[in-house]
Amino acid sequence: MKQKTICIVLLIMVYSLLARNVEQGFIEFKLKIAEDIKNGYDQIFSIDTLFTVDGIGQFELIKDYSAIIGRFKWKSDCEHKGFMFYMTDMEKNKEFLFQFTWDSKLGLSDMYVNGVLLRKENDKFYRPWSPINIDENPVVHSLDSSVSNLVYQPKFYTFREIAKRVPEKLKEKNTECFIKKSDLIDLNIYKRDLIYSNNLSSESDVENWLIEGPAKISFKGNSMIVESESPNPPDAFSGNFNFWCPETFPDSIMIEWEFMPINDFGVCHFFFSALGENGEKITDLSLAERDGHYEQYHSGDLNNYFIIYFSNWNILRTTNFAISSLHKSTPYSFVSHGTKGVDPQKKKFNTIQVYKIKERIMLKIDGEICLDWNDDIKRYGRIYNEGSIGFRQMAEVKARYRNLKVYRISLNN
């Protein structure tokens, strides 16, 4: 009886070890491409599988006008959506060491490039997922000459363990295409003249604003509370909405408002320079009807730019989108990363400023420049100038807004 009990205990221990191995994993590889790649209208769409890991998944490099995307996707569907990184360009002959590591039981999933962590969450936001069913001894297969030093291990690597594996010559090098660093600029060279002000503190302040989708608007404490009427939708496409200020503003402006997340999860966008393809105002009835579905705003009959400044959504958890980013519509293009976004942990009002000065766009959060980009007419088509501004929230978000201001920007004499 005692021997039988010992055998059962040993079997349980072996099973537990195997289960941990299934729950944890680590993939590492070097990538060095032979030709420059960049998004934009000249980029021809293609998907190339660069390597596979038996029973686990495969890594693909996707080239498109909208973005250059590296994607590791699982062999089978699960709550975790794999690892992705978005770029506008990647230079030839530069070396990148990628490391993906996960622990599904603890909800950990980190992605590094040359030792730089592309996404860091507070552990209160971690969400466990079901472990991947993998082969007992997965074999890696490199399918492209751009990939080398491919490794798989059934283990989660900590930040310190990752750092020890990164060669000194690569540490924190060549990361600009994943996390953009803004140039230092003296914004005092610009003169600001207030042309619009709205406290966003009462219903009368937004009585002529345009709601598209299931938005619920209320007011408390001299601020506007914005949430979805469907905060727990059945899919990622439902329950989202846009909330537009119908004014048409000129080019060369700075928009400022205060924003505070009430809950932890979701994505917030800010739209600007929004007009119809032929210059129609956003309220023009000749434009296609809009009801909050995302594609209507990035690939419909509206031209605009939009910034993601708050992002804590499980599908984006393992991408470098989960910071801040700038996008351009029609056709949709991802055009720039930011260095940071609003921290979901900090339940305070953050001052957001968006500068749109001809082809130049900047994002500031609490006085820090987080994004700085110049549009390129040859690469992304015509530059959008005057237009309307609006807020967008995904269904999970509940947030407060106040003190919206728009300034005309001009150079000081």
Rg to the nearest angstrom?
A: 23 Å
| Proportion of residues in helical segments | under 10%
Strand fraction equals: 35-45%
How many beta-strand runs? 27
Average pLDDT taken over every residue:
87
Characterize the biggest β-sheet.
8 strands, antiparallel
Shape: globular
Number of helices: 4
The end-to-end distance, rounded to whole angstroms, is 94 Å
Structure class: mainly beta
Q: Show unreliable segments.
A: 7-21
Walk me through the structure.
By secondary structure, the protein is mostly beta strands. It has helices at residues 2-23, 159-165, 295-298, 377-380; strands at residues 24-31, 37-38, 46-53, 57-63, 68-74, 83-87, 89-90, 96-103, 108-113, 116-117, 140-142, 147-153, 190-198, 210-212, 215-220, 223-228, 241-249, 253-261, 266-276, 302-312, 325-328, 333-337, 350-357, 360-365, 368-374, 387-393, 398-411. Strands 13, 15, 16, 18, 23, 24, 25 and 27 form an eight-stranded antiparallel β-sheet that branches. A seven-stranded antiparallel β-sheet has the order 14-17-26-19-20-21-22. The longest helix has 22 residues, at 2-23. It is globular. 38% of the residues are buried.
Produce the secondary structure layout.
Elements (H helix, E strand, L loop, with lengths): L1 H22 E8 L5 E2 L7 E8 L3 E7 L4 E7 L8 E5 L1 E2 L5 E8 L4 E6 L2 E2 L22 E3 L4 E7 L5 H7 L24 E9 L11 E3 L2 E6 L2 E6 L12 E9 L3 E9 L4 E11 L18 H4 L3 E11 L12 E4 L4 E5 L12 E8 L2 E6 L2 E7 L2 H4 L6 E7 L4 E14 L2
Antiparallel strand pairs: 1-8, 1-12, 2-7, 3-4, 3-11, 4-5, 5-6, 8-9, 9-10, 13-27, 14-17, 15-16, 16-27, 17-26, 18-23, 18-27, 19-20, 19-26, 20-21, 21-22, 23-24, 24-25
